[in-house]
Amino acid sequence: MNSEVLYRELSELDKKHFLHPTTSIKQQQENGPDFIFTHGKGVRLFDLKGRSAIDGLSSLWNVNIGHGREEMARTAYEQMKTLAYSSCFATYSHEPAIRLAAKLADIAPGNLSAVFFTSGGSESNDTAYKLARHYWILKGEPERKKIISRTKSYHGVALGATSATGLKPFRDFTGSLAPDFCYVDHFSPADLRNKIEEEGPETVAAFIAEPVQGAGGLHLGPEGYFKEIRSICDEYGILLITDEVITAFGRTGSYFGIDHYSVEPDMMCFAKGITSGYAQLGGVMLTEELHRVFIDRSEGTLLHGYTYSGHPMACTVALKNLEIVESEGLIENARKMGEEMLKGFRSIEAESGIAANARALGLMGALEFVKNKETNERFQSPLAPKVVAEAAKRGLICRSVVFDQQDTLVFAPPLIMSREEMSELHSILEDAVKAVEKTIAPAAN
Ligand code: PMP
């Protein structure tokens, strides 16, 4: 079948039958899918119409080792052939899950030493809230139930994860939320202290934060932020959970995002980069101290478990992925290419009348659009989505964030990015920004 005909057929079926995640339904119904991808190789994706594009967000911040890696496919194939699936419920186990748990204990920050596996980030967050509350039940303080999170945070879409998500549009989407969640200003340790005092420290189970906020517009914490919130949590005996779903496994130029701040969490959520998207896997890690409480005080069953907790193929794929991250020096590459990425963003910012506030940590970066660079005043109608469209036409996929009065482009290219690919990304982006800048009437400028 010719690809134009196939595209039309698939596009119609897509509109009729496929309810897309986090997608404008209206836009889907009007235009059909923008891209129908057929394959990927390295930092690029290819589509049915014969176009190719740099995957500037590693798809969903996850394809860290790049697309089309045959060694990953072979690893999955061998594991599926040998033991595609067996349960980890009750006391059943298997080598891939055991080896991965031990590997994670080896590389994780601080004293994190035990892991509960899930299938992704949202499940990891819900698991963290439940395990944190269960920990307090075991410790004889069952009234410690509240989970505090930050106003610009994104923690996923399961009911607990949605309830913890600070970004209001995600919470407003559904009629009611899980109880015992509250929010504090994204950047203010003082606000965390006030909220704890207001709620009563004896009712607070945990505080959760992303080391670098990603999906909500890519926000880096102010200097000293994490050290301060660690000490506030310690002062009130509150657990600190870091949500490293995006930041773990090299994305920020260190193994884990929190490593930049020399802080040790009590629990850590991960997903995405653990397998680079070659399989669905996430998890929550607990410190040895927390694990010890579970070991010493649990009498019944740990009544929390997903069918795919510790999926053998996913765990084997994760081990292979981490081997690649380490053997190819991808964490170091993320650090170097991250500096390169920021340099390029800064030069686009300097050249352009509308680009501003370039920032990055490792290969997580952002660029904003403003009407006035002095006051940071925004355009009434955001420009970032227009730049995304112009970039896509020229062969670069990136994402805009416009909720919460933002007008931001976010980037997280694969950790395998070369210098040449990075300069290609910059030159496409520069052209796309120029193309949009040209459309702005001088009066609006
Ligand atoms: N936490 C963070 C920080 C995330 O960025 C995401 C997804 N972007 C999630 C949780 C949810 O993960 P998932 O989509 O795998 O459920």
UniProtKB/TrEMBL annotation:
Q: Which UniProt keywords apply?
A: Aminotransferase, Pyridoxal phosphate, Transferase
* One Pfam match: Aminotran_3
Q: Which GO terms describe its molecular function?
A: pyridoxal phosphate binding; transaminase activity
Q: Tell me the leader sequence span.
A: none
The UniProt similarity line reads: Belongs to the class-III pyridoxal-phosphate-dependent aminotransferase family.
Q: What is this protein called?
A: Aminotransferase class III-fold pyridoxal phosphate-dependent enzyme
Origin organism of this chain?
Metabacillus mangrovi
